[in-house]
Amino acid sequence: MEVRQKKPLILALLDPDKTTSGKAEKIISRLERSHFDAYLIGGSTAIWQSKVDNLINTIKKVSNKPVIIFPGSISNLSPLADAVLFMSLLNSSSPFYIVEQQFQAAPIVREMDLEPISTAYIILGQGGTAGFVGHARPIPLDKPELVAGYVLTAQYFGFKMVYLEAGSGASEPIPTSLIKFVKAVAEIPIIVGGGIKNIKQIQSLIKAGADCLIVGNILENPSESNRFLRELNSLESVLGNQTQQVRPKHCTN
Asked: Is 253 a member of any domain?
């Protein structure tokens, strides 16, 4: 893992179950003209590896940006990716999503020569599909002290970063007040995902302390996506060089 003193990361999340090759080419052609640092590939339900492979191949035809697996299960892994978020869902009620699936996946990750990015995954609010599938106990958004406790736990366990998830399709992103509260105690990068729909939310989350933002659902609608990307293109001139950038070690361009 390489850490650079630079602007925050913004990653595009693409779901292989929802993104056919033809649709992916159109989406990626738009994203390549905008300010995205990498592609995150994954979904909350079981996905055949062939779908993941096809989507990664489509991306790599037109982009040299890092491709990182956001695994919902072992079947999401692909040797064509550059790295994988090697995640533990800390607030799951099932050991399977905390450590058992990871135990099964570890030899496969090694065989595929994927860079494992050690990530603590914490689901908040309504939780969405990820919360349901992962048997999570989503943390209420008005309980930042509970989130901070999990973040410190992740930090003391030695995770490289922590992913705070509002859930796919969330009506609103995680509150900035919660991000500020957690940032005051965290010494590892904070990823924030779910419910991000406009540039004002991105600016507010970054100002609150988010090191990496995940944008997904809005990219699937062409008209909404075009509007969002036009706004996003102004982000770099607004922010300048502020926070750390984290990249897979295989992708240092």
From this structure: no
- Alpha helices, DSSP H, located in 126-221: 128-133, 144-157, 176-183, 199-208
Q: What distance in Å separates the CA atoms of residue 77 and residue 94, rounded to the nearest whole number?
A: 21
Instruction: Let me know if residue 252 belongs to a domain.
Output: no
What 8-state DSSP symbol labels residue 175? P
Give the tens place of pLDDT for each residue, 174-221.
999 999 999 999 999 999 999 999 889 999 999 999 999 999 888 887
- Number of domains present in the structure of the chain: 1
Owning domain of residue 87: 2-247
Helix (H) or strand (E) segment spanning residue 231? helix 222-232
- Residue 183 is assigned to a structural domain of this protein: yes
Model confidence, pTM: 0.89
Instruction: Write out pLDDT tens, residues 134-174.
Output: 999 999 999 999 999 999 999 999 999 999 999 877 889 99
Asked if residue 179 belongs to a domain, the reply is: yes
Quick check: 154 and 120 in contact, CB under 8 A?
yes
Q: Is 123:88 a contact under the CB 8 Å cutoff?
A: no
